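Extended Data, panel c. Modelled sequence:
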Amino acid sequence: MRDSGRRYRAARRDGAGEDRSEVRAAVARFLVMGFAALLLVTTPVAFWILEQAERHALNNARNATQRLADFAIGPLVTEQLFAGDPAAIQGLDNRIAPWLDRGNVLRIKVWDSTGRVVYSDVNALIGNEYALPDWGEALLAGGEGTATVENQDELENEFESTAGELVEVYVRSMAATGEPLIFEAYYDDDDVRAEQAAVLRDVAPAILLALAVLQLAQLIPAVRLARRIQADQAVRRRLLQRSLEASDLERRRIARDLHDEVIQDLAGLSYAMEAEEMRSSPGQRALLTQAHLILQDNVKTLRAMTAELYPINLEKLGLPAAMNRLADPLRQAGIHVTLRGENAEDLSRESSAMFYRVAREALANVLKHAGADSVELSLENVNDATVLQIRDDGRGFDPGHGAPEAHLGMQIMKDTIEDAGGSLAVVSAPGEGTVVEARLASGDAHFKGRVSPRT
């Protein structure tokens, strides 16, 4: 009793530890998925923030350029400047020198409506003519200015082509003479990138904090749900375990009662009838002989039923040897039987009983219905699971038309094994034999050694 109590407490501790481990694993999977979702959400949000910050910085650059064009440069674009007067050019150079010296502006160009550069801080460009782009006419007609960040590789960018990405701004302004002008300015993109980084630094913590709080808020009910599921599964396992133990106990009781009482009484009656048969008259002997044979057949049937109710071989010999005994009727019928696999000495009694019943049902079907020449039984440990496989080369059947009546017992076994957390599959096809595979988690099974193939 003390040993049983220790085993029970150890099983409870192992089950509790397994439940906690499964809860931790479920929480870890939830956190990993949450982190992945966080990345999926924050990555496009970060790009959106950068895009908005760039747009904001470009709008600021366009507004600053518009003010520079309207109030600092436009009033100085006079007839003399259009004529290329050096004094007018020098006056405009002096006016924009502070912006160029501070580095706010890298290049300035002023275009008239014909595409001629009427002014630039690079004197070599003054007087050059270039074809206006399509949007140039719309801008001269009062359209909105543009600001972009890009590499400068046009013909008129020979002095900016090596500077990399620049902020290029086009705005419309008016000369002192009233003629519309296109004012072009270039800025270093460092200011735009700095503003992007600043906005991202300011906004990202709030977004990440909100998402983290949401994740934690979901984590608490997720943990509770995982624990509730684990508790329900534990209760189900305990109920199944108790039902199996009760079934096994009842089988033993019935087998013991049949063996100790009914079979013994019938055996005694058989001996008495045999003695009476020898002393009877010739007229009664035939009747007693027939009754004696019927009684012997019934005793054999009851003994077979007792063996099925409680397989003594399984307790004494172990699962592989017991399955080898199950195959004896097939060998006697001329069917070649091969048993291979691993020793299951430490497989739990309940698991061994399940595998034994599956093997018994499958081999009985092979003997009665398959018409097979050979059968192979294998017991192996595969990916933390114990797998029993029975393969025959018989006539098979079409699973699409449902399992034949001979496999109804296998369906019952399938339901029982699935309730225990395992699986049972029957694969067959007409003319291609049948494969029965039972699988149970081997958390309580440790395999030692090898079982030599038996035929």
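The chain has eleven helices and eleven strands. This feature is highlighted in the accompanying rendering.
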